[in-house]
Design brief:
The complex is a heterotrimer of chains A (362), B (493) and C (362). Chain A is 35% helix and 35% strand. Chain A is an alpha/beta fold and 362 residues long. In chain C, 74% of the residues lie in helices and 0% in strands.
Chain lengths: 362, 493, 362
């Protein structure tokens, strides 16, 4: 008898408990995959932000359909609320892949306030990509790219470029990391819509106090990556007298060294292991390889120096020299790092290129 | 006051009166040809072999030199001849296939002649625990045959067989088997005492014994191992365990046991240790999979959409698009369908059962997906889970696992992954509390005993099996000399 | 006053490792990095080591005391202070262990409410959880030890999962070493106490150990292991977050999980948080067991009665805490009481015991 009572009471408690937690059943929610932020174009809404969400409509045996909803509001959370008014199902942020900011908005207004909710929201992962759109975010999101949905296309584009090409590691965590790190400033990749079905990764934008102050081109990205990522890879073309070669850097390592304290001097050793992908000359001889290596080293030295100069000009430090100084010098004061001390910092480069292979043919 | 003799006579008459109500009771009067002694035979015709009476008993009694009851021993060529003065013995012996011989002269002495009729099937192939490699014999219903099967495999004097009779009406013979110099005395005493304490009107099968003497009768986990393989029983006895053989049951009980033993097939010992370890791991994985996969599906789809890899999203959402039910109802519907199929299949003759399985699997599954009642992803998951639950080598634990799925499912519906972990916690506590004949059930996982891991989740080679399981607390913990097993020759020696 | 525990209710000496380790490694682990960094910056890892050494000394003292009286805390108290005062002092321990249970449970529920189910009702979850705790307690000390064992072994895979953060970590965050004063480091050590308290339960379960002398080694190993785990987490956290960002995250351990993505699981933190339920279960079980056991010794009730009553009190206590301020107040209270109890009271008691022993000998 006793066990019957126990069973009945357990059943009662169970029935009381059901529904005490809110459910988010997969097919009854809209999974936002991407959010874009733009400036409002209408004059009456000046200063307002246009938020666009992109969510897929899944269909059996077919690629998902891209669907966008747009609303205007003052801050991000209310953008979502405004959009909610237009959607039949609850909108959830848990599987978001990328957040896009129009370049205009990021340059004038800054992105910090817009990013803050994402680091606060427990549903949003740290692997979220952030990107700047050269143009309008809404327009980019309304295109139709790839067969797996737009957001997946964007994130795959960025992921592939990090894994195999010249784009330095970037995501929400990396952005916040360099934002909060003293003596370092954050950056984001920049996307551009070319046509209705094509997107181009066309540079990296650098931020200071949440606003874009500087942008580099894809050609400079290779060198920037050498400086900012401990391990990196990528492709670069080197021209010598005998011809032109495309050298793929399989693995490169950089090391910072504080070589002098007064005046402060940092030496960056960059080791590149590369293979020749393509060569327009007649034959790859050891001599050619040697001159290719020399030329490559020279280019690294020049280009990197150019990059650092441009950072100094814009008073940004995406590579984190300031942070490096702090780890090397006890009680190092970073309060006016980018404005004054960084300007006087001497950066020396010691590139070391080794070309190992030249493909299957001699 | 009646004299004891009169009393005895009265009892005898009462007994005969009751017995006469049954048609198979025979009471026949005879007279010896030589000595002209009057005697009578009483027997139950259903219990005795009439051939024995006609060939081995009657001719000798009728023609032999028969004066006193004692003479029977000399003249009748039977092994089982017993004497008694107690009329209560008569009833017992009659129903055990004895012929009662009464001599007119000696009214208070009875002679019992064994003439059992053997009805039963012959030894067959194990059906529940079938193995491709290894012995193919399995126990039958007769306790004598079963004991014979075990004795044959352990022909030493240390193998003790203790018999008792349990069951007010069924009078079932139950035997305890153990090796005296090996088994822990405490274990034997526990078994003996628990069997003695049983008060039940019938013991139809060894399953009754399992349920009655289990340490925790409210647990879905079987706390004694049952097997139909004589090889498994004898090997367990040699390990130091205690076996219980019940008359009328082809399943022999082994105890104390542990949870992991329910996942080890006896065939594991016939295969190379690498292969059998691999199979065992697969089995554990299958069991975990079978319990957890449906709850995880329900939890993920109801609460944790964030976890789903984005490549899978399309397939999952698309398959659920048209389904009107929440995931829990969908899962319950399919789980119940599978259970129905299993129940129906188990009750039907083999040939029909197979058809039901195919019809159910293909027709119902496909139809319910097409009708939009369930998603095809879930159909795959549930079918796999059901398949995985049948990988357990011991039938009993398979049932437990199928039952366990449901509390997990309900908790998953309640609190998602948190619910699953919570129910897992409850399961862990329950298992840590369980004992088998007073020995920890989860051993060697908890209490953690490194030595016993040699034959738990994996099975190491026989070279490493130098010790008997620790939890049995055997009198002889060493199985083979560890030193000799580990001896190694140098290369090229 | 001494009691006899049947031999088959005692546990093997090496299981002490799991009991002490699981008591220490509980809810505090999810957020202690922020607290130590608050005082000692990124020198906090030194504080972890210092705390570890401190606990080793305390454990040695406890074993010494327990050996002298050959009993538990109740026997020590009555040995040193006499029966009446001893009983009053022991009664405080009941309250302390109940508070510990409430704190662990309420903090966990808060985490679940913030990260997974905002609408989870504190009362109902606490009811089910405490019912499970009572069920475990009815199994006796051996069952509880079993849970402690599984709560260490089963979730240990999480330790390896932390390695997923390494690609996003910069270990030079911790440089330069010793940038903070000794005082700062010690303050951080003090504030770490919430994470590592729990080993004082030894004072209660000591009589339940077979051959307690042999368990000494395992007790110390447990503390060593806890220190190692805390150090491991500290180093990984410090490398993953810049200092400023760490201060923003209440539960840095959970935030770190947000970066983890595996092919079959996109996000790990939901699994991790659910898994933590198994980690804190023995904490609640052992605390409640200790409380009820002391109550049994003091007032000679049966544990069968004291456990449900104390669980009910804990349930009421847990559901009375609503806001984060209240929860913080409780955890501050518990960590302060815990600190003074372990680092203040135990040495005091140790000295008193030694004196009492000398006096009694004479």
């Amino acid at each position: 008898m006793k066990s019957i009572y126990t069973a009945i009471s357990i059943l009662c408690i169970y029935l009381l408990l059901t529904g005490c937690v809110k459910k988010e059943i997969l097919d009854e929610i809209y999974l936002i995959e991407s959010i874009g932020f733009d400036h409002s174009k209408e004059k009456s809404n000046k200063g307002m932000i246009v938020g666009t969400i992109l969510y897929p409509i899944y269909q059996p045996d077919q690629p998902p359909k891209n669907k966008t909803l747009t609303a205007e509001a003052h801050i991000k959370k209310s953008v979502l609320q405004e959009i909610q008014l237009q959607s039949a199902n609850p909108i959830v942020t848990g599987s978001m892949e990328i957040v896009l900011f129009s370049k205009e908005l990021a340059t004038n207004e800054g992105v910090l306030e817009l990013i803050d909710p994402f680091q606060r929201d427990p549903a949003v992962g740290s692997g979220l990509y952030l990107a700047v759109v050269d143009g309008e975010a809404k327009e980019l999101m309304e295109g139709n790219y790839g067969i797996r949905g737009n957001a997946t296309y964007f994130s795959n584009l960025i992921e592939n470029n990090i894994k195999n090409e010249d784009l330095p590691k970037t995501n929400l965590h990396k952005f916040l990391f360099s934002y909060y790190q003293k003596g370092q400033t954050p950056f984001m990749p920049q996307l551009k819509r070319i046509s209705k079905e094509k997107v181009l990764l066309n540079g990296i934008c650098f931020f200071k106090h949440g606003k874009i102050v500087h942008t580099i081109s894809p050609q400079e990205m290779f060198f920037f990556r050498l400086l900012v990522d401990k391990y990196s890879n990528g492709l670069h073309r080197v021209k010598i007298d005998e011809g032109e070669a495309a050298i793929r850097s399989i693995r490169s390592v950089h090391r910072f060294k504080l070589t002098n304290r007064f005046p402060k001097e940092v030496t960056v050793q960059i080791k590149v292991h590369g293979i020749i992908n393509e060569y327009t000359g007649t034959k790859v001889t050891p001599k050619v390889i040697d001159s290719l290596q020399k030329e490559f080293e020279k280019e690294i030295d020049e280009e990197c120096k150019k990059l650092i100069e441009s950072f100094k000009e814009n008073k940004i430090d995406p590579i984190g020299f300031g942070h490096f100084m702090k780890t090397q010098i006890r009680n190092f004061d970073l309060t006016d790092w980018t404005d004054s001390q960084f300007q006087n910092l001497i950066v020396k480069l010691e590139p070391d290129v080794t070309i190992a292979e030249a493909g299957v043919i001699e | 006051m009646k004299s004891p003799l009169l009393k005895k006579n009265q009892k005898m008459q009462e007994l005969v009166k009751i017995l006469k109500k049954s048609n198979d009771f025979k009471h026949v009067q005879y007279m010896n040809e030589q000595t002209e002694e009057h005697f009578s035979l009483m027997f139950m015709s259903t219990m005795v072999e009439e051939k024995i009476i006609h060939e081995s008993i009657l001719p000798f009694l009728l023609e032999g030199n028969f004066h006193r009851l004692e003479d029977v021993k000399k003249i009748v060529p039977l092994e089982e001849i017993e004497f008694s003065e107690d009329p209560l013995e008569i009833e017992k012996k009659l129903f055990n296939g004895f012929v009662v011989l009464l001599l007119e002269k000696e009214k208070n002495n009875y002679c019992f002649l064994g003439a059992h009729k053997e009805v039963g099937r012959t030894i067959g192939v194990p059906e529940v625990e079938f193995s491709v490699i290894g012995p193919k014999e399995s126990f039958v219903e007769s306790i004598e045959q079963n004991l014979n099967l075990v004795r044959k495999r352990i022909p030493v004097k240390d193998l003790i067989i203790e018999e008792q009779t349990i069951g007010k009406y069924s009078k079932t013979k139950v035997a305890i088997l153990y090796l005296e110099n090996m088994a822990n005395t405490e274990n034997v005493n526990t078994v003996r005492q628990r069997l003695q304490e049983i008060e039940f009107d019938q013991i139809t099968d060894s399953s009754y014994i399992i349920q009655i003497i289990s340490d925790n009768q409210n647990s879905p986990f079987p706390q004694l191992l049952d097997t139909e393989r004589p090889d498994r029983v004898s090997s367990s006895i040699i390990e130091g365990k205690v076996a219980i053989i019940v008359d009328g049951s082809p399943h022999v009980l082994i105890g104390p046991t542990t949870l992991v033993e329910f996942f080890s097939s006896f065939e594991d010992y016939f295969l190379n240790w690498l292969i059998s370890s691999f199979f065992r791991l697969i089995r554990f994985f299958a069991v975990m999979f079978s319990i957890l996969v449906t709850p995880v599906y329900v939890a993920t789809l109801s609460y944790h959409y964030e976890l789903i890899p984005r490549d899978l999203l399309n397939a999952l959402v698309a398959s659920r698009m048209a389904i009107p039910f929440p995931p829990i109802l969908e899962a319950l519907f399919l789980e119940l369908t599978i259970e129905l199929l299993r129940e129906a299949g188990a009750r039907l003759p083999t040939k029909v059962g197979q058809t039901i399985g195919i019809v159910g699997g293909i027709v119902i599954g496909t139809a319910s997906v097409e009708a939009g009642l369930t998603s095809n992803v879930l159909l795959i998951i549930i079918a796999l889970a059901a398949l995985a639950s049948f990988t357990t080598p011991v039938y009993r634990i398979g049932n437990t696992i199928r039952l366990l799925r449901f509390p997990f499912l309900f908790f998953a519906e309640l609190w998602g992954f948190l619910g699953i972990v919570l129910s897992f916690c409850i399961l862990l506590i329950h298992l840590s509390r369980l004992t088998s004949l007073g020995r920890p059930y989860l051993e060697p996982l908890y209490p953690p005993r490194r030595v016993d891991f040699k034959d738990a989740l994996i099975r190491l080679s026989f070279k490493h099996q130098t010790k008997r399981p620790l939890f049995l607390n055997s009198k002889k913990p060493e199985r083979i000399s560890a030193k000799k097993a580990k001896e190694k020759k140098d290369i090229d020696e | 006053m001494s009691m006899s525990i049947p031999e088959n209710k005692k546990v093997s000496p090496f299981l002490v490792f799991f009991i002490i380790n699981t008591m220490q490694f509980g809810i505090g682990v999810l957020g202690f990095q922020r607290i130590i960094a608050k005082y000692a910056g990124y020198d906090g890892w030194i504080s972890v080591i210092i705390t570890g050494i401190g606990i080793h000394i305390l454990l040695w003292m406890m074993y010494k005391m327990l050996k002298i009286v050959d009993g538990d805390i109740v026997s020590i108290h009555s040995f040193v202070f006499g029966k009446t005062i001893g009983k009053i002092l022991s009664a405080f321990f009941i309250i302390y262990f109940c508070l510990l249970t409430v704190m662990v449970l309420r903090t966990y529920i808060e985490i679940v409410q913030v990260w997974m189910f905002p609408t989870l009702e504190t009362f109902w979850f606490a009811l089910v959880f405490l019912a499970v705790v009572v069920y475990a307690n009815f199994g006796g000390f051996r069952t509880i030890t079993g849970i402690a064992f599984f709560s260490i072994v089963l979730p240990s895979y999480i330790l390896a999962i932390f390695l997923f953060t390494i690609p996003y970590s910069e270990f030079d965050n911790m440089l330069p070493i010793f940038e903070h004063s000794i005082k700062d480091i010690l303050t951080a050590s003090k504030n770490m106490s919430l994470t590592v308290i729990g080993f004082e339960t030894l004072l209660v379960f000591y009589p339940f150990i077979k051959e307690p002398e042999k368990s000494k080694k395992w007790g110390h190993l447990a503390i060593l292991y806890t220190t190692f785990l805390c150090l491991y987490l500290t180093v990984l956290t410090f490398a993953y977050f810049p200092e400023k960002q760490l201060q923003l995250n209440i539960w840095p351990t959970l935030t770190m999980w947000k970066i983890i993505a595996m092919p079959f699981v996109e996000r790990f933190e939901y699994i991790g948080i659910a898994n933590w339920c198994l980690v804190i279960l023995p904490n609640a079980c052992i605390s409640l067991w200790c409380a009820s056991h002391i109550a049994k010794r003091l007032f000679s009730f049966t544990v069968r009665k004291t456990v449900p009553i104390l669980a009910l009190l804990c349930l009421i206590g847990t559901s009375l805490l609503f806001t984060r301020t209240q929860i913080n107040f409780l955890s501050d209270l518990v960590s302060n009481v815990g600190f003074y109890l372990t680092f203040g009271y135990i040495p005091l008691l140790f000295i008193s015991t030694l004196i009492a022993k000398k006096v009694k000998k004479k």
